[in-house]
Amino acid sequence: MSRKENALDLAKFIDKGVRVKLSGGREVEGTLKGYDQLLNLVLDETTEFLRDKDDPLRITDETRSLGLVVCRGTAVMMVSPTAGTEELATNPFLEPGAAE
Amino acid sequence: MLPLLLLKTAQKHPVLVELKNGETYNGHMVQCDSWMNVHLREVICTSKDGDRFWRIPETYIRGNTIKYLRVPDEVIDKVKEETYKRDEKRPNVFNRGRGMRGRGGGRGEGRGQMDGGGRGEGGRGSGGRGNRGRGQHQQL
């Protein structure tokens, strides 16, 4: 396990939509314009998903536009592509028959 | 058994990752690194309260946000097997410990260095640098 090795390969997400979760609970989505090995990110046309006032864990459909932002790497928790991400209506861990 | 070695062996296996914020991610581990950053594929994300779910094709999770990971039992056996194989190849590892001084530290990396036969006269020989890590890669 070399120290240099990096599980990170964000090159394929460049100019694609990515969703980023930040520590503290904010979630943003934007077009990845750049990144570095510290996981600092440059996102363009970013929108933030606002959270429920009573339940900060829960994100709502409300958004606000942030424009061009730099996300500091230390605050980034998770990065995933927007494409192909969907919320599921049912619990996928239940037995196939039980969910119906 | 080193935690990160177990994790590295868990690559290509399904794992569950729980973050400090309580969200869990179930998916196949593609890769992990020495910071415990993990790259998962075919992920199902579950919210903290466990009643919302998302399907995500792949995701990159930063190691320092992880609370714990669950790995399948068979990975344990695989680690044992591989550690055994490795020790068998180099029976008296302890006598050669001097080569481990220097940048490699006492961890797995140091031993990989000798595996490649790259311990130069100087102990920190440059031949060793190239072999370190990469030799271990092939074993895993």
TrEMBL record, chain A:
One matching Pfam family: LSM
CDD domains membership: LSm7
Keywords linked to the UniProt accession: mRNA processing, mRNA splicing, Nucleus, Ribonucleoprotein, RNA-binding, Spliceosome
Matching InterPro entries: Lsm7 (IPR017132), Lsm7/SmG-like (IPR044641), LSM_dom_sf (IPR010920), Sm (IPR047575), Sm_dom_euk/arc (IPR001163)
Molecular-function annotations in GO: RNA binding
Subcellular location: Nucleus
PROSITE patterns: SM
Family membership noted in the UniProt record: Belongs to the snRNP Sm proteins family.
Protein name: Sm domain-containing protein
UniProtKB/TrEMBL annotation, chain B:
Keywords assigned by UniProt, alphabetized: mRNA processing, mRNA splicing, Nucleus, Ribonucleoprotein, RNA-binding, Spliceosome
Residues covered by region (Disordered): 82-140
Gene3D superfamilies named among the record's database cross-references: 2.30.30.100
Compositionally biased region (Basic residues): 131-140
Main function: Binds specifically to the 3'-terminal U-tract of U6 snRNA.
Entry-linked PANTHER family: SMALL NUCLEAR RIBONUCLEOPROTEIN SM (PTHR23338)
Name of the protein in question: U6 snRNA-associated Sm-like protein LSm4
Biological source species: Elliptochloris bilobata
